[in-house]
Amino acid sequence: MSKRIYFNAFHMNCVVHQSPGLWVNPDDQMHKYTDLATWVELARLLERGKFDALFLADVIGIYDIYGGGPGAALRQATQVPVNDPALLIPAMAYATENLGFAFTSSVLQYHPFIFARLISTLDHLTKGRIAWNVVTTYLDSAARSLGLQGLHPHDQRYDIADEYVEVCCKLWESSWEDGAVVRDRLRKTYVDPSRVHPVHHAGRYFKVDGCHLSEPSPQRTPVLFQAGSSPRGREFAARHAECVFVTGPKPVVSQCIRDTRERARRMGRNPKDILFFLYAKIITADTEAAVQRKYVQYLEQLNYEGELALFSGWAGIDFGPIDLDQPLEYVETNAVRGLMEALSAGGSGRKWTLRNLVKGRSGVIAGTPERLAEIFQEWVELGVDGFNLGYVTTPGSFADFVDGVVPLLQRRGLMQTEYGEGTLREKLFGKGCARLPASHPDAQYRADNGSAQEGPHS
Amino acid sequence: MSKRIYFNAFHMNCVVHQSPGLWVNPDDQMHKYTDLATWVELARLLERGKFDALFLADVIGIYDIYGGGPGAALRQATQVPVNDPALLIPAMAYATENLGFAFTSSVLQYHPFIFARLISTLDHLTKGRIAWNVVTTYLDSAARSLGLQGLHPHDQRYDIADEYVEVCCKLWESSWEDGAVVRDRLRKTYVDPSRVHPVHHAGRYFKVDGCHLSEPSPQRTPVLFQAGSSPRGREFAARHAECVFVTGPKPVVSQCIRDTRERARRMGRNPKDILFFLYAKIITADTEAAVQRKYVQYLEQLNYEGELALFSGWAGIDFGPIDLDQPLEYVETNAVRGLMEALSAGGSGRKWTLRNLVKGRSGVIAGTPERLAEIFQEWVELGVDGFNLGYVTTPGSFADFVDGVVPLLQRRGLMQTEYGEGTLREKLFGKGCARLPASHPDAQYRADNGSAQEGPHS
Fold first, then answer.
1. How far apart are CA A111 and CA A213, in angstroms?
2. Cβ B188–A114 below 8 Å, yes or no?
């Protein structure tokens, strides 16, 4: 059997995630995002299709760069209104047995002491199926909403995230020893206090002085996802990430994977302990002609105002005054010039306009199931381990994939036909890997490691 | 029909909430608190028994005063380990239709911008069945865990809570007008940006500058619970609370209710817009003899170390060095003397020792269903509207109540036989009361009120 390919569904607790405009399509049901039934049905569909996980993105601010305000994002419901992703998971977990749940939480969002308990609770309730996508937040509006003047400079955001993960891992890995919960009815002792240790952390950005509130969950530390591709982002990924979310043209993705694995190796990790997931929005049908019809309809329904609200937010550039079809090389601002340099790293040599930027960034992979299997394998040969599948419509896109593509991938040995046993980490990395491997830098905080541990107290 | 009595189940996402030692009882299943099935079954039981709500308490620190450390609390699993309560709600909400869900969240726990979205998300997912118990946190260990030097002085904690509620209500009530979500396919407009307004709040303790991330939920502001009974606590309750949780001997409770209602009246509220819930731990059986047997068994299984860990945490006094049966009037410390003065306000004139303090504070109401109905009505005549029922064992105590007591109360017209329609607030206060009444001080922030609103932007 070939190496199996991993698949996550890429989603968000809102109306419009990555396909602005498509909410007008009657196949799209995401106006029901406030209804738990929508999510429970999606989770059951994904589990039927043997997806590894549902990956829930999140933002804690509004895209308000485009046009100088949040008007475009609001009109197109583009990642706003946006509800808390973590609260969807318990209902979906209760309705499924094996599907993993990854969700985004920014290091700006919670004090790490509170967040550590949130994760432990979810990991308990899902019986070890939780992954955390660590993000630093790129929306200045989020920082202002939280009472800050604005975001910290880019690399400092990763310094903050490094310390945040450190604090969380100290709480998850070092505070409660495995044998702490004894539940000894005869001795009337539920917890052995000599095996519970306070964390004393006084760093540059965070301070914690106390015991973790939760007993150890099946995974202790959740499976760690990360998505940044800058040099500092890769360094962060190499230190912490077990799964990395990548996007872009083939040379860019390939180089990012090689570089990140090499950085991980230098940190003493096995480079194969990191899985790389490519973002892709799948359009599929039985025949090439039907695929083409669907793709044309997608392009017709795609809303450029909504797309550019997102794109302006990511790039930090207001694209509002720029015509959709104006060649960007003639837009004489430093910001756009920087963007052009980044794009030319892709080496396509094409003439960039906002219109083809939008089309190009959309990550669409269109094809019959046979064609998709070929495309997936091309990416796998470049070093990609799996895919984060965005949607054109929900449940449409996922139903098409589960019913149309999954059986073919399974027949070819490219996708799992049954879930592995154990926690999400075991399902991804194999039996016995319920927790962080010893070579993971964040395993250093483990209670049995000694260095972070204190003497017993009572 | 007599005025119906309200009933909540009082619980917590942990092994031992208010009955330390009872985990050794085979009837108690709370060692399965990490399993969603435990909670879904409890919610279904409560809904079958027409309970108004499940009230989930919480702490974000460890009880570490008794014996100078967390040893006692840990040994007895007394409110530690303790997981996040909010994450239990979605699975229970999906399995029920009418049961309300109240949960405790401290104003130390989240930035109000993040908390406001958490509540809006839950209110959406439950279709308007959420209540928030606003607490200021009494455990110094919580403050230290969050990197603070310690708790703020008592009254200042309520100043912080006042501002916290203010910020949340601005986000819930003023940021999105009711007509903001238009979902107009023809005009390709999901949200009308002219009806979404940023909140600009720069106060003494909190700063927010941005739009609420969630569209209006069924209740907007959740039903507001509060529990503090100090003068400053009552002032806070009179301003914000719609439900107040009370405990103590009859004269104390009665005076607290009268005083709080009078304070509310002076703030322009209808004093009847506040419901008072008495804490009670029910022990019931068919005959007086069986009740007595159960009560004796409860006292035998009650663990004093666990009880005193809680009691030391609440009082801020280490009871570790004091003998269980030593008359407290001879303990010559200022802290204990202050406690004695508070207790003598109850007017019982009894001789207090730690042993009878523990028994006295336990809130047990034991009796046959007939006797319980009489006791409930005595309290109702004092001004109590309902009860927060703690448990001896779970599901034991609630099953006993639902099967043994509820039918009798329903026959006598003392308990609802069907749920009212609409949101939790409507179920509690009547049809048409989905949202905060106009006379509620926090309704001043409403978008249609004008004062907190800005001109349209886009």
1. 14
2. no
Q: Hey, are the CB atoms on B75 and A114 less than 8 Å from each other?
A: no
Grouping H, G, I as helix, E, B as strand and the rest as coil, residue A417 is coil
Tell me whether residue A351 is in a domain.
no
Tell me how far CA of residue A166 lies from CA of A108, A206, A238, B272, in angstroms.
Answer: 15, 10, 14, 50
- Tell me the average pLDDT of chain B: 93
- The tokens describing B337, both together, are 């003397």
Q: What is the pLDDT of residues A311-347, one digit of tens each?
A: 999 988 999 999 999 888 777 677 777 777 766 665 5
- Chain A residue numbers with beta carbons less than 8 Å from the beta carbon of B60 are 113-114, 117, 213
Q: Do A458 and B71 touch (CB under 8 A)?
A: yes
Cα(B77)–Cα(B14) distance, integer angstroms: 8
Q: What is the ipTM of this complex?
A: 0.96
Q: Which of A71, A122, A185 sits opposite B24 (nearest CB)?
A: A185
Q: Which of A374, A225, A211, A43 is nearest to B60 (CA)?
A: A211
Residue stretches of chain B with pLDDT short of 70? 1-2, 332, 342-350, 448-458
What the block records as the tokens of B305 is 């170390």
Average pLDDT, chain A: 93
pTM summary value? 0.96
* Confidence check: pLDDT of A458 > 50: no
Q: Over the range A118-135, which residues count as b (16 or more CB within 10 Å of their CB) and which as e?
A: bbbbbbbbbbbbbbbbbb
If one counts every other C-beta atom within 10 angstroms of the C-beta of residue A27, the result is 13
Q: Number of Cβ pairs closer than 8 Å across A and B? A: 230
Nearest to A191 among B77, B125, B458 (CB): B77
B281: which strand partners? B364, B390
> In B, which residues are within 8 Å of A40 by CB distance?
94
Give me the number of domains chain A comprises: 1
Cα A43 to Cα A46: distance, rounded to the nearest angstrom: 5
Instruction: Please indicate, yes or no, if residue B450 is contained in any of the structural domains.
Output: no
Contacts of B269 (CB under 8 A, 6+ apart): B238, B439, B440, B441
CA dihedral B117→A23→B125→B228, nearest 10 degrees, is: 20
Determine the pLDDT at residue A371: 98
The reply to whether A71 falls in a domain is yes
Instruction: Using only the alpha carbons of chain B, give its radius of gyration.
Output: 22
pLDDT of residue B343: 65
Q: What angle do CA A331, A335, A341 make, to 5 degrees?
A: 85
Write the pLDDT tens digit of every residue in A434-450: 999 999 999 999 976 54
A39 to A46, A56, A182, B96, B285: CA distances (angstroms): 10, 11, 37, 16, 42
Cβ–Cβ below 8 Å for A145 and B61: no
Domain ranges, residue A426? 6-322+360-445
User: Residue A274: inside a domain, yes or no?
Assistant: yes
Q: How confident is the model at residue A132 (pLDDT cuts 50, 70, 90)?
A: very high
Beta bridge partners of B210: B199
Q: At B211, which CATH number?
A: 3.20.20.30
**Full DSSP string of A352-368:** P-HHHHHHHHT-EEE--
A60 and B114 within 8 Å at the Cβ level: the answer is: yes
The pair of structure tokens assigned to B163 is: 């501002």
A350 pLDDT band, cuts 50/70/90, is: low
Are the C-beta atoms of residues A318 and A65 closer than 8 Å to each other?
yes
Query: What is residue A349's predicted lDDT score, i.e. its pLDDT?
Result: 61
> pLDDT per residue over A70-107, tens digit each?
999 999 999 999 999 999 999 999 999 999 999 999 99
Residue with tokens 């999105």: B176
Q: Residue B36 and residue A77: Cβ atoms within 8 Å?
A: no
pLDDT in tens, A10-27: 999 999 999 999 999 999
